[in-house]
Amino acid sequence: MADKEKKEYPIATHRHSLAHIMAQAVQRLLDPDVKLGIGPAIDNGFYYDFIFSEGIEFHEAQLKPINKLMQQIIKEKQEFVHYESNFEESETILKMFGQEFKLDLLNKFKEEGDTKVTYYLNVISEKAAEFALKDAAPTFKKKYEIITDYFRTKIPTLEGKFITFADLCEGPHVDDTGELVPNAFKASKIAGAYWRGDANNPMMTRIYGYAFENKQGLTDHINFLEEAKKRDHRVLGQKLKLFTISPLVGAGLPLFHPNGTILRQELEKFLRSMHKDKGYQKVRTPHLAKESLYECSGHAGHYLDDMFKVKGGSSGEDFFVKPMNCPHHMQLFADNNFSYRDMPVKYFEPGTVYRDEKSWQLSGLTRVRCITQDDGHLFCRVSQIKEEVGTIVEIIKQFYQTMGMMDEYWVSLSVRDYSDTSKYMGDSELWDNAENALEELAQEQNIVYKKIEGEAAFYGPKLDFMFKDAIKRERQLATIQLDFNLPERFDLSFVNEEGEKERPVVIHRAICGSLERCIGVLTEHFMGAFPVWLAPTQVTILTVADAFNDHGAQVQKQLQEAGLRVKLDNSTDSLNKKIRNAEMMKIPYILVIGEKEQTENTVSVREYRSKKQYELPTSELVTQVSKEYKERALEKTN
After folding, report:
1. Mean pLDDT by 10 residues, the chain (638 residues)
2. Smaller CB count within 10 Å for the chain: N or C?
3. Does residue 272 lie within any of the structural domains?
4. Are both 501 and 597 inside the same structural domain?
5. pLDDT tens readout for residues 127-151
């Protein structure tokens, strides 16, 4: 008899079904009484959360046998059987399962007003179960005998069949496990996760898996992860001495070495250069503020738990360390009597702010507690929104073109949920004008954008720019946010042509998001091999022997006088070791000086990024590198 034709399912259905299969494998192989959390499909795969019984710990080495058993479960062609229940029966079922976390979910569903509860059961014939479960623990078999007996009284078609897994779940799933693609998935790693994401709840063991439509998709993803591992900015940051995290200073508080500080300075200089002719005025605000500032801004009611509080030693006054610059900038605008002739007013501050991020969320430079934002706030009229946002878009394009990240990007245009506009600040006409201005601008500038309803903040629509790095990872970096709320809360105004007070619109904008995260992203994007303008050391000079050290120093001086960052390696190491050391630090230009170079006043050049080798008069090399630096070129300018 021919096999039945396989159905086509969305990849998310495959992934969610595999989460159930992995949970079954964990119960069959390791712990029949393991407590189950949730097991959703996610990008690139799935996960399931567990709390293992006392004395049982899960280790990376156990992923291999879990994968093997999952393959076996697929071959068993277990059916996914759907069962609907009510809340009263569900409490009985989940107590029988011994699954208190599922009971917690059941109570959550009640509170949210759900009217039905659904389960999915994995089912095979009793005969097949005898063979499939021959190596399973007796406690696993006994547990599912009880479960099977219960559901046979509810589902007549289960006669002669055996349940191997049951879970509170809304689905959907494939019809049977045989419809899943073998060798297109892999249980991949473990992590910790709090139940329902709350640090006050128990910590669970989260087992992740990758899953794709075919084996090649899985292979490609694993290769991608290997490439990403090579680019990890946390590893490269240590090797290249960009930054360090000191346990004495604290998690999420990176310390920048001289090399990392140069990167920051170059980025800041570039950002300043793009703003100098755009009407921005640089401002500076303190790192502390009284709680009353955040009461006025509205952050006190929602954000205080994520802020650091400090107390004055002698004054005894309470302050909060600022988590954002905008409330401070509102005070600067308020301290003036602006008229329509002054509009727009543009403030720019690369200020450091502090947020009490959860410790398990911290990661190198991409998630920190001290955040140096390239922060800008524009105060303008509604009629000026389109023009001012257009100027910001041009700055964003220039910045990411310089980084080589403009080939593939798109913009999320976040607008209101039109089915319920009552939850948004500001009148409908104001929102209509603002949303239309953003969309018209996106169309005029040929920006690839997606209009996403319901994603706007309650205080205004926004544009989020999504860029891809060198290995095609999508990064949300630049953002432009319109704000009708803060001008209202701080009662900001300017005098219009009729001599009346008019409320400004605030535009929040960040080009690179934060310097810390930007450096992390760029380190991975360039794999630590920064273009000349960003490279902490742009040129290194290697002398073949001591006899050429004086000439090497002269070449160093010549390059330094041209404004370049140069190091001279005149150590007693062999030339090969000097070259290896320079390449480990990914220095763009490696110059070798020996007798021939000294006599002819040339340099033997090795380019780290292109791997080219050639000889050049010293003066031409100075001109070449200086031009590359000045133009912020990605590659050598000829």
Report:
1. 65 96 95 94 95 92 96 96 90 87 90 86 94 89 92 92 93 93 94 88 95 96 94 96 96 97 96 90 94 90 86 88 94 97 94 89 93 92 93 94 91 91 82 90 91 87 92 90 91 96 94 93 96 98 95 96 97 95 97 95 95 95 96 75
2. N
3. yes
4. no
5. 999 998 988 889 999 999 999 999 9
Kindly state whether residues 484 and 430 are assigned to the same domain.
yes
Domain-located, residue 638:
no
Strands 345-349 and 375-380: antiparallel
Q: What are the C-alpha distances in Å from 303 to residues 94, 196, 201, 454, 482? A: 37, 20, 21, 22, 20
Q: Which position has the token pair 């964990």?
A: 26
189 and 308 both lie in a single domain: no
Which residues are CB-contacts of 110 (< 8 A; sequence separation ≥ 6)?
Answer: 87
**H/E element, 540:** strand 539-543
Q: Round to whole Å and give the CA distance between 182 and 188.
A: 15
Same domain, 169 and 262: no
Q: Give the residue from 478, 412, 486, 422 showing the smallest Cα distance to 450.
A: 412
Using one digit for the tens of pLDDT, what is the confidence trace for 25-47?
A: 999 999 999 999 999 999 999 99
CA distance 76 to 323: 54
In CATH, what number is assigned to the domain containing residue 271? 3.30.930.10
Locate tokens 């502090």: which residue?
A: 354
Do 447 and 470 have their domain in common? yes
Amino acid 433: pLDDT: 87
Residues 292 and 276 in one domain: no
- Quote the pLDDT of residue 205: 95
Q: 80 with 139, same domain?
A: yes
Last residue of one domain, picked from the residues 274, 296, 321: 321
| Residue 436 covered by a domain | yes
**Active-site residue set:** 326, 355, 373, 375, 377, 462, 508
**Pairing mode of beta strands 566-569, 539-543:** parallel
- Of how many residues is the chain composed? 638
| Together in a domain, 307 and 266 | no
**Can you give the pLDDT at residue 388?**
94
pLDDT of residue 6: 64
pLDDT in the model for residue 1? 36
Distances (CA, A) of 75 to 158, 181, 206, 211, 548: 20, 10, 25, 17, 71
**Nearest-angstrom CA–CA distance, 85 and 155:** 12
**Do the domain assignments include residue 4?**
no
* DSSP 8-state assignment for residue 404: T
Dihedral of the CA atoms 506, 512, 514, 519 (nearest 10)?
A: 180
Q: 524, 550, 574 — which closes off a domain?
A: 524
- Reference 17, options 93, 129, 122, 103; nearest CA is 122
pLDDT at 427: 81
pLDDT tens figures, 294-346: 999 888 877 788 899 998 888 888 999 999 999 999 999 999 999 999 999 99
CATH code of the domain in which 182 resides: 3.30.980.10
Q: Is 115:162 a contact under the CB 8 Å cutoff?
A: no
Q: In the structure encoding, which two tokens stand for residue 492, read together?
A: 């900001």
Full residue range of the structural domain in which residue 309 is found? 288-321
Q: What's the token pair of residue 54?
A: 């006392």
Q: What total number of domains does the chain contain?
A: 4
